[in-house]
């Protein structure tokens, strides 16, 4: 069985570079794709550029998988410092929680909202935007 592409550090570095440029374009208003509307919305809630960049890189690397209603598995990326193969993010009572909260430095991740949650937030909002887009309604970003 082949390892996922996000086990390759070069692929992860490239994803981070691309995410950095995409977030910059979105926040400067140079890109109006659906993913940029999501990025701007999240930035209004959590104004941390590096958090958005890392979350977008995780999302772009296709590490987010919905397991059930309100539960997602986010594959761990060693090059981003993940020590576990996967993390589970839940959304319940209007709050996100991640299993990384119970691991090393979890108190810090909980206080600052981890990038596993950022990736899930991007995935959830992107799905909502594309679900309601009329046929032929523009680029996906």
Task: Kindly list the characteristics that best describe this protein.
141 residues, alpha+beta, 4-stranded antiparallel beta sheet, 4 strands, 48% helix
What report would you give on this structure?
48% of the residues lie in helices and 15% in strands. It is of the alpha+beta class. The chain has one domain. Strands 1-2-3-4 form a 4-stranded antiparallel sheet, with helices on one face. A hairpin with a 2-residue loop joins strand 1 and strand 2. Helix 1 packs across helix 2. The protein is globular, with a radius of gyration of 15 Å. The C terminus is likely disordered.
Widest sheet: strand ordering: 1-2-3-4
Termini separation: 30 Å
Following the backbone from N to C, one meets helices and strands in this order, namely HHHEEEEHH
Shape: globular
Q: Give the biggest beta sheet.
A: 4 strands, antiparallel
Q: Output the radius of gyration.
A: 15 Å
Low-confidence stretches: 136-141
Fraction in beta strands: 5-15%
Which structural class matches the secondary elements?
Answer: alpha+beta
Please give the share of residues in helix: 40-55%
Number of domains: 1
Count the DSSP helices. Answer: 5
**Total beta strands:** 4
Average pLDDT works out at: 86
Produce the secondary structure layout.
Elements: H1 9-28, H2 34-45, H3 49-60, E1 64-68, E2 71-75, E3 86-92, E4 95-98, H4 106-112, H5 115-131
Antiparallel strand pairs: 1-2, 2-3, 3-4
Helix pairs in contact: 1-2, 1-3, 2-5, 3-5
């Amino acid at each position: 069985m082949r390892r996922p592409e996000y086990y390759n550090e070069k692929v992860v570095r490239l994803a981070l570079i691309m995410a950095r440029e995409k977030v910059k374009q979105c926040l400067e208003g140079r890109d109006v794709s659906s993913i940029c509307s999501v990025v701007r919305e999240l930035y209004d809630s959590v104004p941390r550029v590096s958090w958005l960049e890392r979350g977008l890189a995780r999302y772009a690397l296709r590490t987010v998988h919905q397991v059930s209603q309100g539960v997602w598995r986010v594959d761990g990326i060693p090059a981003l410092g993940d020590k576990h193969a996967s993390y589970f993010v839940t959304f319940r009572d209007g709050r996100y929680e991640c299993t990384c909260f119970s691991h090393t430095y979890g108190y810090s991740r909980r206080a600052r909202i981890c990038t596993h949650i950022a990736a899930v937030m991007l995935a959830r909002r992107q799905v909502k935007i594309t679900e309601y887009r009329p046929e032929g309604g523009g680029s996906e970003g």
